Amino acid sequence: MPPDYEYAPLRLPPGTDRMSAQVELTIRAEYGGWELARVRLYADGTRKVVLRRRRSTGSASPVLAT
Question: Judging by DSSP bridges, how do beta strands 35-41 and 47-54 pair with one another?
Fold first, then answer.
């Protein structure tokens, strides 16, 4: 049976440079256990990111607010 994941959508506004986006995603990965599932870059510069992590067997932890 494949592991269950929880997902967290994240929107990075236009004008966010690549380094700032990397820092934001790195912090979420290091401290929240998230991994990158999908990134879409739109013509206006908006990035829509989907993060995922395995569901814990204990109490459900809240999704990070954006």
Answer: antiparallel
C-alpha angle 62-34-31 in degrees, rounded to nearest 5: 80
6, 55 in Cβ contact below 8 A?
yes
Place of tokens 């395995």: 54
Task: Classify the C-alpha dihedral 23-4-9-39 as positive or negative.
Answer: positive
Is the pTM higher than 0.85? The answer reads: no
Contact between 26 and 18 (Cβ < 8 Å): no
- From first to last of its 66 residues, the chain has per-residue pLDDT tens of 567 999 999 999 999 999 999 999 999 999 999 999 999 999 999 999 999 999 876 655 555 555
